[in-house]
From TrEMBL:
<comment type="similarity">
    <text>Belongs to the GHMP kinase family. IspE subfamily.</text>
</comment>
<protein>
    <recommendedName>
        <fullName>4-(cytidine 5'-diphospho)-2-C-methyl-D-erythritol kinase</fullName>
        <ecNumber>2.7.1.148</ecNumber>
    </recommendedName>
</protein>
<keyword id="KW-0150">Chloroplast</keyword>
<dbReference type="GO" id="GO:0005524">
    <property type="term" value="F:ATP binding"/>
</dbReference>
<keyword id="KW-0414">Isoprene biosynthesis</keyword>
<dbReference type="GO" id="GO:0016114">
    <property type="term" value="P:terpenoid biosynthetic process"/>
</dbReference>
<comment type="pathway">
    <text>Isoprenoid biosynthesis; isopentenyl diphosphate biosynthesis via DXP pathway; isopentenyl diphosphate from 1-deoxy-D-xylulose 5-phosphate: step 3/6.</text>
</comment>
<dbReference type="Pfam" id="PF00288">
    <property type="entry name" value="GHMP_kinases_N"/>
</dbReference>
<dbReference type="InterPro" id="IPR020568">
    <property type="entry name" value="Ribosomal_Su5_D2-typ_SF"/>
</dbReference>
<keyword id="KW-0809">Transit peptide</keyword>
<keyword id="KW-0418">Kinase</keyword>
<dbReference type="GO" id="GO:0050515">
    <property type="term" value="F:4-(cytidine 5'-diphospho)-2-C-methyl-D-erythritol kinase activity"/>
</dbReference>
<keyword id="KW-0547">Nucleotide-binding</keyword>
<keyword id="KW-0067">ATP-binding</keyword>
<dbReference type="InterPro" id="IPR004424">
    <property type="entry name" value="IspE"/>
</dbReference>
<feature type="domain" description="GHMP kinase N-terminal">
    <location>
        <begin position="159"/>
        <end position="236"/>
    </location>
</feature>
<keyword id="KW-0934">Plastid</keyword>
Amino acid sequence: MTMAIASSRLLCQSPPPTFLHHSPNFVGNNSSSSSLRLSWLRSQSHRCSFSHSKSGNQRTPKFARKQVEIVYDPDERINKLADEVEEKAAPVSRLTLFSPCKINVFLRITGKREDGFHDLASLFHVISLGDVIKFSLSPSKTKDRLSTNVSGVPLDDRNLIIKALNLYRKKTGSNNFFWIHLDKKVPTGAGLGGGSSNAATALWAANQFSGLLATEKELQEWSSEIGSDVPFFFSQGAAYCTGRGEVVQNISPALPLDIPMVLIKPQQACSTAEVYKCLQLDKTNKVDPLTLLERISRHGISQDVCINDLEPPAFDVLPSLKRLKQRVLAASRGQYDAVFMSGSGSTIVGIGSPDPPQFVYDDDEYKDVFLSEANFLTREENNWYREPASRTASGSSSEFSGSIE
């Protein structure tokens, strides 16, 4: 994995100042390189050269150019850590897994629970947008080490990956600790369950490293202690979820996996707590969720079945999100079979085409939106989700951050 080469133009002085900029859009590979290589490529050894201006008298210094190449290779770091523990004959010493996100094809809120949560009924479906997580057994027996390619992601036990690993050790007595690198593609605050997927993926990984101390059913049951959406990812990819979301009923894929879709997420996120706070149960849709499930099974996706009871309160929290959905609907001209919000927002999903409407490109208001095409995804029994051969996502890149020790 190689950071982009950054170059800076330096005024002629001795010694020249150093500016290091990096844009680590990592590309996975299996080649071995040094963990950190710093090479200085100087043109004419910091010499100053001058050129005459058109007046013929004034001499103007030309900038000397210095290039800085920084190569950081998390793959090699993972491999070295794995090599240190391989001699212990662990079932697995390193593992790379795809961590996909989900959309809610419909989401009904059916009541308020005594514990303060809400009962829901929803068709969850995994989609092909996702993160990649690399795990390696660590020689450490006291702490996991997490790094990521994005800023702002917590790297301690506030992160659901670390919570999942702690939960697995608590439930099984395993003493495995890990070095983890999260290559984040799914935006946060999107209603796509990216963090929940990361947690489920970490539980699956920990179980592989320990030689399958737990059954998949046990992993699913334990995962509800982390979050309501986490158990869904232990389905086969399509499930009717009830309760807080933790009651998961596998269904045969009611939808063709090759149906294209586009995801449009503005920079603003919706607070799930704020959305539920604004929810008025007496104003939710009254259609039976099982009726919606049957309609989708028989006739596929259409605008009238993609009901999300959290849309009105989310639009109250973020009025610009309502305007975005309305503009997508108005501009679609039959391009999409349905346009709806996923989860508690703030992603708007257009089913039926991978292309966003033209105004998203033309209007400055949407210049910073996250865009991604996707399709539905499932997994085979006893296997984790596989990353599609090609995935296209834009609008999501940020600096490398992490703790490498």
